Amino acid sequence: xxxxxxxxxxxxxxxxxxxxxxxxxxxxxxxxxxxxxxxxxxxxxxxxxxxxxxxxxxxxxxxxxxxxxxxxxxxxxxxxxxxxxxxxxxxxxxxxxxxxxxxxxxxxxxxxxxxxxxxxxxxxxxxxxxxxxxxxxxxxxxxxxxxxxxxxxxxxxxxxxxxxxxxxxxxxxxxxxxxxxxxxxxxxxxxxxxxxxxxxxxxxxxxxxxxxxxxxxxxxxxxxxxxxxxxxxxxxxxxxxxxxxxxxxxxxxxxxxxxxxxxxxxxxxxxxxxxxxxxxxxxxxxxxxxxxxxxxxxxxxxxxxxxxxxxxxxxxxxxxxxxxxxxxxxxxxxxxxxxxxxxxxxxxxxxxxxxxxxxxxxxxxxxxxxxxxxxxxxxxxxxxxxxxxxxxxxxxxxxxxxxxxxxxxxxxxxxxxxxxxxxxxxxxxxxxxxxxxxxxxxxxxxxxxxxxxxxxxxxxxxxxxxxxxxxxxxxxxxxxxxxxxxxxxxxxxxxxxxxxxxxxxxxxxxxxxxxxxxxxxxxxxxxxxxxxxxxxxxxxxxxxxxxxxxxxxxxxxxxxxxxxxxxxxxxxxxxxxxxxxxxxxxxxxxxxxxxxxxxxxxxxxxxxxxxxxxxxxxxxxxxxx
Length: 625
What we know:
Elements: E1 2-4, H1 5-26, H2 52-67, H3 73-83, H4 89-99, H5 126-131, H6 136-148, H7 154-168, H8 175-182, H9 191-206, H10 208-219, H11 227-241, H12 247-252, H13 258-273, H14 280-286, H15 305-323, E2 327-329, E3 343-350, E4 353-360, E5 366-373, E6 378-379, E7 384-388, E8 393-401, E9 410-418, E10 421-430, E11 436-442, H16 468-471, H17 485-493, E12 504-507, E13 513-514, E14 526-536, E15 540-548, E16 552-556, E17 559-564, E18 575-581, E19 584-594, E20 601-607
Parallel strand pairs: 1-2
Antiparallel strand pairs: 3-4, 4-8, 5-7, 5-9, 6-8, 9-10, 11-12, 11-14, 13-20, 14-19, 15-18, 15-20, 16-17, 16-19
């Protein structure tokens, strides 16, 4: 395949214009989970909104301008930590993970139950396709590293797929063919692969409107950012309407995560057509300005779309030359002078094993020593020596001994010695989420059901037996207090808790989620208490963020501060409470009234700087008893 600079620039510029068009249109109605019909007008473009769909691609462009084509997970993590202050959803969870020393790919999975398969990474796929024209495999490689920073599962596959589409679109114009070729980068057993197959089948066999309904029905989610339904809508629009730039409006009409759908569709159609073939009306409406969110700090971002395209093309030169798949024709501007790394070390401790992956990014052999060390962790080997050939990977695992209980995050460091000289080190962590005392469950007879017999048909052969309803239910007794504040104090201060006439157990969660059912046997209606302390060095207001599947009461320092009196979904942040914590020990008591057997709770704390908790960062503080 051959590529000249004029064609490359034209398609890159077209892609970025389409991305900006969809972002501007979709931002004002983002999160409205309904289809719509909005007429195109100049008024829709009066405000150019900053948008994370573009912001995070500007972040990565800034990174590759400095590092070139040899970027790996540690580079992504470091750049994120330096420059990103987005507090929302998976972004906030990823930032907390990175601060604890949990790096990609684990940072996208750890403590990220609810948001792992959201739209935050499929929306930033284009950069990797634009930097790797005609090389979908390599585009997907970088997209996979990028996505794993803050996502897992479907969303990673979706970013890989969409980046491959962008790469293929430099040399293929048929949407169906682009999708079929891009499927090569995702597993055939994955949800992403099946989604593409389903949408193609529904669009071809059922028509546009019916297919949209099927996507909403099968992939629909209460979380408007859930990726499968939004990616499904994007694919449908492109398949059915993607033969012209006007499909951006059709994408807008899908609603839901509207800016993501419209911007992704606009970007791909923009690459296919190139900037020159985009109708002048759209160029006039979108303009040439690039706006960056205030939460992206300290990057060298272009201020115009044309400048963004120029910088992308210059950065892309390093990727194109590295791939050796594209023959460059004509005159090209010079690329960036980059500071490429000589190696990349990935490290994680899982299931009592330190897992290391060392990649030699240079072309020559490297004689390497890795020296892990920590005051809290014992390593079975203190020096790992190996030789690794150029452009190859060395994997190694050693057993480690961790503390019996990890309440606060513990750190470890691996020094890297190359040719007898220390060349660097990486610091990683094993996360801790504090500790709680579980007191209970407390179970009572529901005598009101004793005679709740079926009025027409006998339930038993003996009339003395209680009803079947009674036999399968216990009592929900929200009005009864099973533990007084004094009893709670004695439980928390006791050295030996075996003397209490009910179950008491110290539990140590592995993330924000606590599943009480794990710690006792049996099902049914019951009451239990979770007890702990939040220790502070100063008086401090903080948000308490709780998701719970059952009714619960939160008490802080013997005050009832929140009551949820019904069964709800246990998504993080379902209940948010602002509380003025005091210096020293703050007693936390959560009473759970289990109505349904699946009893789940998530609890974390967010800093307070005068904003809504959605706009605040997660605190690293954890409760401990």
